[in-house]
């Protein structure tokens, strides 16, 4: 007789009666209805596929194929990745354009302010810009006056950027 993994014993056949399994096949032997149920099979008893599922439902393995969690993971993981990318600006090319335009606006303003100084080669700027399309650039510049003394001046420019064209106006330099 082939060893199937399930030991011979009395098992509930699903109808409330106990039927004998000989280790390989179900037999036609049933315990009388008035008899005391046998002790359960010893721990670690393995299930064998030859045991009839309808005859011993309590001995069937629990089905957990992981499909539910796998499906959730297939949907949730890409959704989280896309959400993170959108929130971090990965798909926002405007952010890079804004940075480039901010640098252009500051450079345009500083060049225009330099053209108004007595000693433009000595200019040291501290500038910042805000806006979109039309930028306000503000800051200070330290440069030499006509006597050679370092003087701090404050300025503000309006820079309009449209495509490859930038128009710069110095609002004040004092």
Order of helices and strands: EEEHHEEEE
Number of domains: 2
Distance between the termini: 106 Å
Q: Count the DSSP helices.
A: 2
**Mean pLDDT reading:** 77
Strand content: 25-35%
Tell me the major beta sheet: 4 strands, antiparallel
Please mark out the parts with pLDDT under 50 across 5 or more consecutive residues, or reply none.
Answer: none
Can you tell me the overall shape? rod-shaped
The number of distinct β-strands equals 7
Taking strands numbered 1, 2, ... along the chain, how are they ordered across the largest sheet?
4-5-6-7
Give me the Rg, rounded.
42 Å
The residue fraction in helices comes out at 25-40%
Structural class: alpha+beta
Describe the structure using short key phrases.
25% helix; 174 residues; rod-shaped; 2 domains; alpha+beta; four-stranded antiparallel sheet
